Backbone:
C-alpha cells in the first residue's frame, strides 16, 4: 500500500500519475468490499487521480513502451524488492540511462546495507519487527497489530516527502537522483522517536519506552454511559481538571504538582482520572471539560465520523458519481493551500482503461498498439 498511498497524495496535488499494472491488475483491486470485480474500495480510494496502463514487464516487447513512458516522466516510483526490480529491468541504472534527470524512488522493505535486504515486508511484519506490536502488548498484555495499515501508510508519507525534496533539488540543480525509502527503518524511526527515552544516552539511563504511552490507564476513559477522551496536558489543564472534578487539593499534591512529577506518577494520576470519569455521562463531561478549557473529545466509532458536525461542516466525505460504480463517497484532501489546492480530478479507472490513449501519447499508432496487445505486452482495457 505504501507506493499507492504515496502516489495517491501526489495525484491529489496535481501530478499526472500513470499506474503501470500487470495483466491481472494490482492486488489492491481485489482487496476488501467491491461492487464490481477489480474495483474494490481499497483500490478506489488509492486509484483516484491515476491513469491505468497494463504492461507485462516480463515480456521483451514491453521494454520499448516502458522506456518511452520513462522518457516522458519526472518521477519513477516502485515498491519492489531490489532483486525483483533488477530482473524486471527497472533498476536505477537502467531507468536513469533512459532519463538522466529522473527522480527514481524505490520503497522496499529494508535498507540495502543490511542482511534483511531481500526479505519480503508487509505491514504486519513491520509493525511487529519495529516494536509497535510489543508496545501494544506492554499495555494490554497481548502483543497485537494496530487496526489500520500503519507501517505502509507511514512509509508512504516518508516516500512522498522524499520525492518532493528530490524534485526540489532537481528544480535547483537539474540533477535527478535515486531515492530509497526502506519500510523497516522508516517505521522504526517513527515508533522510536518518543520511545528512545533512556536509550538516547550511552550508557543507557533506562530501557526504551515512553512511560506515559505505556500506562494501562492511557485509553478512552469509561463514563457512566460510554467512553470519552480526556487529556489534561500542562499545569493549567490539570489545575482546572482537579477543580471541576471536585479535587482542587490534588493540584498541590507533590506527585502531580508539575510535569516531571506527573510523569513519574503517571499510573497513579491516570487511575484517579479513570475513577472520577465514571461518575457522569459522556455528554456531561464533554460540556464540563470544554467549558473549563480542558482538552476533551468524544470517542467515536468509525461510523460516527460520517455524522460528526465538524467533519460534515468541512465536507470530509464528499460524494461523486463514478461512471461504473455509481455514487461513491471519497475522502477530501485534508490539507489546504491558498494557491494550489489538491482535489479529486480523475475517477479511479478500470484495469488498463488508459493503456491505448497513453501509448498514443508516446507515439504509438493504432497498428503498433494492436501488435503490442496481440503479443501480450500491453493489455486490453477491461470494462
Residues:
Amino acid at each position: 500500500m505504501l507506493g499507492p498511498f504515496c502516489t495517491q497524495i501526489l495525484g491529489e496535488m496535481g501530478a499526472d500519475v500513470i499506474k503501470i499494472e500487470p495483466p491481472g491488475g494490482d492486488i489492491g483491486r481485489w482487496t476488501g468490499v467491491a461492487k464490481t470485480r477489480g474495483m474494490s474500495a481499497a483500490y478506489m480510494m488509492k486509484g483516484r487521480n491515476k491513469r491505468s496502463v497494463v504492461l507485462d514487464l516480463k515480456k521483451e516487447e514491453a521494454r520499448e513502451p516502458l522506456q518511452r513512458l520513462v522518457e516522458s516522466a519526472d518521477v519513477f516510483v516502485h515498491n519492489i524488492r531490489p532483486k525483483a526490480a533488477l530482473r524486471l529491468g527497472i533498476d536505477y541504472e537502467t531507468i536513469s540511462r533512459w532519463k538522466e534527470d529522473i527522480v527514481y524512488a524505490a520503497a522496499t522493505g529494508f535498507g540495502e546495507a543490511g542482511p534483511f535486504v531481500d526479505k519480503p515486508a508487509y505491514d504486519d511484519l513491520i509493525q511487529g519487527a519495529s516494536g509497535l506490536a510489543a508496545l501494544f502488548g506492554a499495555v494490554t498484555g497481548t502483543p497485537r497489530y494496530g487496526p489500520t495499515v500503519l507501517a505502509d501508510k507511514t512509509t508512504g508519507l516518508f516516500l512522498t516527502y522524499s520525492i518532493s525534496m528530490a524534485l526540489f533539488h532537481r528544480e535547483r540543480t537539474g540533477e535527478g537522483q535515486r531515492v530509497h525509502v526502506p519500510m523497516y527503518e522508516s517505521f522504526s524511526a517513527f515508533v522510536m522517536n518518543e520511545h528512545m527515552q533512556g536509550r538516547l544516552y550511552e550508557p543507557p539511563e533506562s530501557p526504551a519506552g515512553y512511560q506515559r504511552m505505556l500506562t494501562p490507564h492511557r485509553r478512552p476513559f469509561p463514563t457512566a454511559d460510554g467512553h470519552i477522551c480526556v487529556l489534561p496536558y500542562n499545569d493549567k489543564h490539570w489545575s482546572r481538571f482537579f477543580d471541576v472534578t471536585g479535587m482542587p487539593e490534588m493540584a498541590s499534591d507533590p506527585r502531580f504538582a508539575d510535569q516531571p512529577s506527573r510523569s513519574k506518577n503517571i499510573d497513579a494520576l491516570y487511575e484517579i482520572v479513570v475513577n472520577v470519569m465514571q461518575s457522569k455521562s459522556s455528554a456531561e463531561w464533554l460540556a464540563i471539560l470544554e467549558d473549563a478549557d480542558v482538552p476533551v473529545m468524544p470517542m467515536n466509532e468509525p461510523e460516527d465520523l460520517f455524522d460528526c458536525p465538524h467533519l460534515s461542516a468541512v465536507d470530509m466525505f464528499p460524494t461523486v458519481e463514478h461512471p461504473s460504480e455509481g455514487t461513491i463517497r471519497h475522502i477530501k484532501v485534508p490539507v489546504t493551500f491558498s494557491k494550489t489546492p489538491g482535489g479529486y480530478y480523475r475517477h479511479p479507472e478500470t484495469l488498463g482503461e488508459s493503456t491505448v490513449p497513453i501509448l498514443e501519447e508516446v507515439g504509438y499508432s493504432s497498428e503498433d498498439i494492436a501488435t503490442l496487445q496481440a503479443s501480450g505486452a500491453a493489455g486490453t482495457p477491461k470494462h
User: Anything to note?
Assistant: The chain is about 40% helix and 10% strand. The first helix runs from residue 2 to 12. The CA atoms of residues 53 and 355 lie 4 Å apart. The beta strands are 17-21, 50-54, 75-78, 103-108, 177-182, 221-222, 227-230, 296-298, 319-322, 326-329.
